[in-house]
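Please, structure for the following, as tokens.
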Amino acid sequence: MAPSVNLYAGGPSWPLSSPAIRIRYRPSDKFTFMFAAADDNPPGNRNNSFGIQNGGNSADPTNQNTHDEDGANFNMGTGALLITELQYALNPQPDDMSHVTKDPGLPGIYKLGGYYDTAKFPDYRYNNQGKALGSAADTTGIPRWDRGNWMVYGIIDQMIWRPSLQSPQSVGIFARATGNGGDRNMISFAIDAGINLKAPFKGRDNDTVGLGWGIGRASSGQRRYDRNSGAPVQGNENHLELTYQAQVMPWWVMQPDFQYVWHPSGGVTDWTGNRLVGNEAIFGLHSNITF
């Protein structure tokens, strides 16, 4: 969902990285300001980075073999991704809680931020001749390119219960909301939220069980393109996730994960073009080893 589907190759994040600089300013233990500037397009592929450029199918962003023999490409020709964020820490906790006698309150972190990408992005409404993209009047199928893209977001991560200061057990909730323009983005609005229980069982102090839910809304530009081209109009995608993070050894964490997705991509057709892709059940297993 947003912002990954709205940026070149999902933006500079794992497994793709970009040259970047980050500034962090913390005037007090409650407030933190952060700013970052990064190359916005790790693979450097501009011609087929978004589904709207190729009838709904974008190129694999992890494939960099088209650039040179070793696959390395330090792209600096698309644009800059500028990110800013303000954080507020509610009830900051001491680094060492073992000697605390007075309850400092339940900790939480609240974030408000956004980004601006200086690059050009394909328009979901008009082609390069100013005609409605995907309509009968569209004879090129090539979208118009618009300068700049943006998104704003808010994040809440709040502990809501713990039995005592020394107890490893706690319950926390989290939520994230994002919003951006609909003329050059596939997803214009998304919400993710959930709840985590730390130390769910006796003797499992470092384990965590979590339940999450999210929804993504297809942008007005995407829906208009669907109507113009006669495709099913994309709407909302909903997903539910249940996960358990288990510390098997002090240096080894395993995390089984189950996800269920309703209306993948908001309702698109399968490879036959005659029926919608069905709901999806996804099973995964993460493993993290610390050396």
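The chain has a mean pLDDT of 88. Residues 4-289 form a domain with the Porin fold (CATH 2.40.160).
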